[in-house]
Structures are given as C-alpha cells and as structure tokens.
Amino acid sequence: MTILLTNAWVLTLDDTLSEHNPGWVQIDGSTITGMGSGPPPSIAGAEIIDCGGDIVMPGMVNTHCHMGMSVFRGLAEDVDDRLYRYILPLERKFVTAEMVRIGSTLSAVEMIQGGVTTVADMYYFETEVAEVCDRAGLRAIVGQTLADFDPPDHKTFNQGFALVEDLVDRYRDHPLVTPSIAPHAPYSTGRAVMERIADWSLANPDVPVQMHLAESTLEVEWARKTHGQSTVAVTRDAGLLKPNLIAAHCLQLDDADITMMSEAQICVATNPRSNGKAGRGISPVEKMRNAGLPVGIGSDGAMSGNTLDLFSQFAPVSMFAKLLGGSRKPLPAVEVVRMATIEGARVLSLNLKTGSLEVGKQADLIRINLAAPRLHPIYDPYSLLVFAAMPSDVTHSMVAGRWLMRNRQLETLDPVGAVRDAVQIANSFKAEMRRIDESHDPA
Ligand SMILES: [Zn+2]
C-alpha cells in the first residue's frame, strides 16, 4: 500500500537541510520511497493525503526518559529532599511490573501526542516498557537499570544482569525495540560493577549502554573522594567510555572531561528542563558539540522534567546555551531541531534508520498544523518549531509507515484508560505520603 503525503512543507533535516514547499512524500510499507517538490507523481491505488500546507518533518527523538515514572509527575515539586523523603520509599513499596506498565503507557500516549517517535528509556521491569513500546508502535531503546540502592526489581547485581539477559533475549531481533543495559550512574553502580558491564558490553557490542553521567556535584565529590579523579575518568578507566555509551545529563564537566568523552566518541543526552528545575547547573552543550560529540535532547522522567515532548525542552536548551555564551548567537534554532531529530538519532545509533526524511529511511514522521495565530507570520520554520510551536500542534504521527496518531486520534493506545490507571496509582502514593509526613512530623 502506497501513501502519498501531498501539499506539505517538508523539512527533511538531511545533511543540506533541504526543504520541499509545497512538497510530497511517498511511503511504501515501512519506508520512504520518494520525495520532491510540487505536485506528486500519479500512483495507481495510492492513498493520497493532502496536508494543506502543514509541516511534515522527522519524528522527534527523546534521547533520555524514564517512562514508568510519569506516575510521579509533579509529586512534592519543591521539596528539596523529596528523593529520600518520598521517591525512594515510594519506589521500593509500589514500583511493580504493573506500575511500570501503567506509567509507561501514559508516557507513550503523551509522547505520541507530542511528536516523539523514538525514545531511549531506562528504568526497572524494563520488559514491561518494551511491551508497551511494541504495542504503542514507538521506536525505542529500552534499558534495564542496574543500581546498588535496593531498586525494586533486583536485590543483587547478579539478579540485575539476569534481567538484562532476559530483555536482550526477548528483544534482540525486534524491528522497533532495541534492548539496552543501563548502569544507573557511576556512584550507584561502583567501579567494579562498571568493569563487569564493560566486559559484558564487549561481548554484546550491538547492545547500547545508557548511564547518568556527571549529573551532580555529589557525584563529582564521590569520584574525587573514592577514586581521586573525575567521574568521567572513573568511567573511562572502568572501560565504559565507548561509542555505544549514551551518557545522560553531563553537567559537571571540565575541559579535560570533554576531551576524554570526545576521544572516546561517546554520545550525550542533555536534559535541560530536568536539570534547570533541580538547580543542578547548565550542561556545556555548545562546548561538547564543538568537540565533535553528538548531543541529543532528553525529557528525563516526568518526575524531573514533567513533560515528555521535546517542544518543552527547546526553550531551556536554547536559553541555557545563550546565557552561557552571553549572546543571542549560540545554538541557533535550526541546531536545536537537528538535536531533536537527526543528531538525537545519531546519539542512539539509529541515524541510518530514522531522524531525517530521506528515500530509503524508515517512515518516522510527524505533521504539524500551522493554523494557530501564535505561529504566524513565519520567517523561519526552525524558529517557529523551537519558540512558538506546542505539542498540541502535532496532528499526525507515523513510525515505520504505521500511523500512531491521525487528526489527534491515537491509533494504538487508549488515552482515557491510560489516565484512569495512572490516577489510581497516584491515589495510593498520596495515602503513603500522608503516612510518611505523619511519621516525620507527628502531631
Ligand atoms: Zn534520568
């Protein structure tokens, strides 16, 4: 079955940023088979969709997420010790396979509605996340997290490795879902286990590694006190600084760290909203990109960044770069859109499949309606996307030639059921939080 999208403003995000306006895109099966300007070719039996001048562009790539955590969205927002007071106790008590499935489903709904077609996730009970992404039709990298703080799905690292092996066995050959191993962070994994993961990774080079890196001053202090070097150097010496590492956050870096990361050709996921809200600092995105590191944009979990679309990340990622540079010039809008699409795909080693609209690549695309007065007049479509567009302007979403959303109607998931299930979980969280408050501050 051929689909022809016609009368569209096609932003390809290819190497030369070519555009077709008005243009057309031809899709056969899962693949983009043709593209051009002006009227489309006539193809017998093709389904023709007139886009009415809307933008058609690559679906966005969310390079760092914890989908299961959307049930924590907005919880104890401004409480500084909320991680230890609420989050970790709630995770230990309530995080089950079912909770992860419910949280991940809500996240998948939100991401499809917000223009994300590929996500890199790391959390617990990750086979549940993989199942949700499979059902949703999202392209995904799903990472089983390993950590030493008594996480909800493993008591020992041996048990954690068994979960990784199970995930890899089940999803190694899946067309959309790529299994991944996800040491939580250097300080919560430890050098010896990082070395073990590095060895495992050598034997499984097709499995991406995801890890939080250089996220906080506490982590930097841990590395200096325990190992007498930077957290990036600890990671390098453990053997994990490699091209298949997707390092999230990367805030607390000096120039030597950036050189090490660039020599090792690792990939970075920056999470501006999450970092800004936590007061953790500003990631040196321009410096890293100038050093040749690919940098994608991540939402982080909804507990930290609240929303999982990338439009919400555009203003902070852009403003942080401009504030650091003290001028309007750093990180132009087009570069932000690149980071959200083709560069994000590069971060996940999926750039040969997705991230730009090119003949032969997978048909992962979104359509953005331009009816809102807020979007006019238009001098530059990239400025529009970064500073004026909203997730609700996305009307259609397609992954591998399959519609996930048409005219804002979801094709694969039930948004009403997703919200209802999440609210039920939140009710049990609220009751437990009252109990915690009473035990902290008895009347
Ligand atoms: Zn994270």
Automatic annotation (TrEMBL):
Residues in Amidohydrolase-related domain copies: 55-403
Domain of life: Bacteria
Keywords: Hydrolase
Annotated coiled-coil segments of the chain: none
GO MF annotations in UniProt: hydrolase activity, acting on carbon-nitrogen (but not peptide) bonds
SUPFAM superfamilies registered for this protein in UniProt: Composite domain of metallo-dependent hydrolases, Metallo-dependent hydrolases
Pfam families: Amidohydro_1 (PF01979)
PANTHER family: AMIDOHYDROLASE-RELATED DOMAIN-CONTAINING PROTEIN (PTHR43794:SF11), AMINOHYDROLASE SSNA-RELATED (PTHR43794)
Family assignment from sequence similarity: Belongs to the metallo-dependent hydrolases superfamily. ATZ/TRZ family.
Designated name of the protein: Amidohydrolase
Source organism (scientific name): Devosia aurantiaca
